[in-house]
TrEMBL record:
Family: Belongs to the iron/ascorbate-dependent oxidoreductase family.
Span of domain Fe2OG dioxygenase: 206-307
Record's protein name: Flavonol synthase/flavanone 3-hydroxylase-like
GO terms of biological process kind: defense response; negative regulation of defense response to insect; regulation of defense response to fungus; regulation of jasmonic acid mediated signaling pathway
Superkingdom of the organism of origin: Eukaryota
Species of provenance: Cocos nucifera (Coconut palm)
Length: 357
């Protein structure tokens, strides 16, 4: 773990680079040709978007319930991504959580740097993931904090400004956890498992969750870099509140990158690597990335739901048969998450490397 004690180089907030007004980005942010986005490509014009699911349809005993479960199941197999509406989270809270985080990133640099993070826990204000010296960096800053289990919460790492940010995070986190519990049930049943299967498998009441507020400042050369490099999320599932004004998230579908068009007041849900492992690849985590933007900054809030750290997770026995042998070797999340924490976002290389054979 020694290599995760501190960053290999001094950390420069991307926001300060952006605000310097330079017309050229530093070399460290310039991606190799093959990773650069094609900003005028088909991605934006592609009308085929990620599926939209109305969670109002889950009311028990209704005809819509089966159709809704089916829609989620199809989305988890074909896209690894979907948007949900009618999710029961109040619009007022969605606006409030965005406002407090916008307020945080507008604080003076020194106030933010008081919360500077290190790679030991990643909690706090940061500008990189991965500890490789000389790595090409992404055009984004973030704030990361652990929300669940309650016993792992470290309030010293939570910002105190702007006023009410802590209460708002608490309240928002509760709502996110509630939504995750519902979606775990839906995914369990649609995989043919007992409704409580997935929640139990990932630790029951001891599951983990973290909030990552992503801030992507304006970028003078968005064609050369990325706000966030291609990756799949290592945990169980992610609930993303995207910016309500500025697009940027792209999802890989086949060989193409599809730009997500967030619906107002919707959440974007995506399958994490652990669901791919538990479902023995019936459901798949999917690569996604964020493109930078020359004219507007962008804020998104990702709520990561992940397993209790010390449970070895492999394919559910119920989903394994002679015809469908287990595709992955069991691993604890403690071990699993070290990969991204060392190497930074690297597509889907990690879950691929778990392949049993
Ligand atoms: C993430 C992520 C997407 C976004 O934080 O893992 O994929 O739109 N964020 O910021
Ligand atoms: Ni992600």
């Amino acid at each position: 773990m020694d290599c995760l004690r501190d960053w290999p180089e001094p950390v420069v907030p991307v926001q300060s680079l952006s605000e310097s007004g330079a017309a050229v980005i530093p070399d460290r942010y310039v991606k190799p040709q093959s990773e650069r986005p094609s900003l005028d490509s088909t991605a934006d014009k592609n009308i085929l978007g990620i599926p939209i699911v109305d969670l109002g349809g889950l009311a028990e005993g209704t005809a819509e319930c089966r159709a809704t479960m089916r829609a989620i199941s199809d989305a988890c197999q074909e896209w690894g991504f979907f948007q949900v509406v009618n999710h029961g989270v109040s619009r007022e809270l969605m606006e409030r959580i965005r406002d407090v985080w916008r307020g945080f990133f507008q604080l003076p640099t020194e106030a933010k740097k008081a919360y500077a993070n290190t790679p030991t826990t990643y909690e706090g204000y940061g500008s990189r993931v991965g500890v490789q010296k000389g790595a090409i960096l992404d055009w984004g800053d973030y704030y990361y904090l652990q929300y669940l289990p309650q016993s792992a919460r470290n309030y010293d790492k939570w910002p105190i400004l702007p006023i009410s940010i802590r209460d708002t995070i608490e309240e928002y986190g509760r709502e996110m956890a509630r939504l995750c519990v519902i979606l775990m049930k839906v995914m369990s049943v649609s995989l043919g498992l007992d409704a409580n299967f997935l929640q139990k498998a990932i630790g029951g009441d001891d599951v983990g969750a973290a909030l990552r507020a992503n801030y992507y400042p304006k970028c003078p050369q968005p064609d050369l870099t990325l706000g966030l490099s291609a990756h799949s999320d290592p945990g169980v599932m992610t609930v993303l509140l995207a910016d309500d004004q500025v697009k940027g998230l792209q999802v890989r579908k086949g060989g193409e990158w599809i730009t997500v068009q967030p619906l107002p007041h919707a959440f974007i849900i995506n399958v994490g690597d652990q669901i791919q492992v538990l479902s023995n690849a019936t459901y798949k985590s999917v690569e996604h990335r964020v493109v930078a933007n020359a004219s507007s900054d962008r804020l998104s809030l990702a709520f990561f739901y992940y397993p209790k750290f010390d449970l070895p997770l492999g394919p559910a026995r119920e989903l394994v048969s002679p015809d469908r042998p287990p595709l992955y070797q069991p691993m604890t999340y403690n071990e699993y998450r070290l990969y991204i924490r060392k190497n930074g976002p690297k597509g889907k290389t990690q879950v691929e490397s778990l392949k049993a054979m």
